[in-house]
Amino acid sequence: MPRPISGQTVVITGASSGIGRATALTFGKLGANVVLASRSEAALREVAALIESEGSRAHVVVTDVSNWMQVEHLAKEAINHFGRVDTWVNDASVAIYGTIDQLEADELEQVIRVNLLGVMFGTKAILPYMEQQGGGTIINVASGLGERSVPLQAAYSASKRGVIGFSEGIRMELEQAQKGITITVIKPASINTPFFNHARSKTGVKPQPIPPVYPPQLVADSIVFAAENPRRDLSVGGMSKLVEIGEHFSPSLNDWLMKAGGIMFKMQQTDRPDDGVDNLFAGVDGVGRVEGDFGQMTVKSSPYTTLLEQHPGRKRALWLMGALGLGVLLLRRR
After folding, report:
1. Considering the entire predicted model, what is its pTM?
2. How do the pLDDT tens digits run along the chain, 334 residues long?
3. Distance between CA atoms of 155 and 25, rounded to whole angstroms?
4. Taking the domains of the chain in order of start, what are their residue ranges?
5. Labelling 298: which of 27, 127, 133, 267 has CA 20 to 30 A away?
């Protein structure tokens, strides 16, 4: 049975911009109590004001998810303010573009601390409260790059693969213990958010998303869907699933396609010089936004996500039809 969003309490990390901001605003419009967390207080205050203008309640908790004590405080503050947490969304992420010889040790560590340890810390912090209240939903935002790494983003890809692996392990632990807590992994393809403006670049130019690019609202809607309808995982954008399938079929073929003519290096770089501003170690000053600078590259929707990914019965039927069709083809060739 779907879980109604209205009246739920939702905690969202990385809520100041991009996917997190879109997700917070969507939950607010649906009547949820929203706890907003990131390192950028001014941007969080703006999101809170927008949510409250819709008649919902919002609470700001400035949090660096790479710091366990701050994440533990976030969980306590959410419980103290609203009494319970129904859904916790681990969304905060940072990125750095460059080859491994260009990256410093502390930069590598920071990507892992925010993107992977931040998810681990958030999950650990809220679990005791969800166990006490008899259930809840934890949604971990990974990436299609968690299934297939790309050059220039090796650290980011590794962190997102870690999110997937961590989620798989604790999902089984919670199911075995019958805690009533569900774990969902969201795996977006490239999304048009300020993520690319905020990423640190060692290439000399500003980075850009790998096309096709999808709107952030598509991810926000998928996260809300997972809060209402528990799922194991959701790929957002057909390209995310296509890359995953390709990886299972032939990783070496994926390697060859990405290296051919240096295409995967070129696709991730703009012709604009890097401005040296990033959020790797600290939040970016000023207010945030949902959309990035790549609207001209962005498709409006993903029929795969809305028609198949959110309906596992349809996905299974499609795979069965494909398997039967392949079987018939093989029999006819005999």
Report:
1. 0.91
2. 567 899 999 999 999 999 999 999 999 999 999 999 999 999 999 999 999 999 999 999 999 999 999 999 999 999 999 999 999 999 999 999 999 999 999 999 999 999 999 999 999 999 999 999 999 999 999 999 999 999 999 999 999 999 999 999 999 999 999 999 999 999 999 999 999 999 999 999 999 999 999 999 999 999 999 999 999 999 999 888 888 888 888 889 989 988 999 999 999 999 999 999 999 999 987 778 999 999 999 998 788 877 777 766 555 555 455 445 545 555 565 5
3. 30
4. 9-301
5. 27
User: Which token pair is 94?
Assistant: 């940072």
Q: 94 — phi, psi (to 5°)?
A: -130, 165
Q: Is the dihedral of CA 236, 238, 241, 243 positive or negative?
A: negative
> Can you read off the two tokens belonging to residue 327?
């079987």
E strands, 75-116, in order: 87-90, 96-97
Architecture of domain 9-301 in this structure: 3-Layer(aba) Sandwich (3.40)
SS3 95: coil
Given the residues 97, 156, 214, 304, select the one marked as catalytic. 156
Cβ distance 127 to 167 under 8 Å? no
Measured distance CA(222)–CA(203) in Å, rounded: 33
314's CB contacts (< 8 A; 6+ apart) are 307, 308
Distance between CA atoms of residues 17 and 40, nearest Å: 9
Q: How far is CA 295 from the centre of its chain?
A: 19
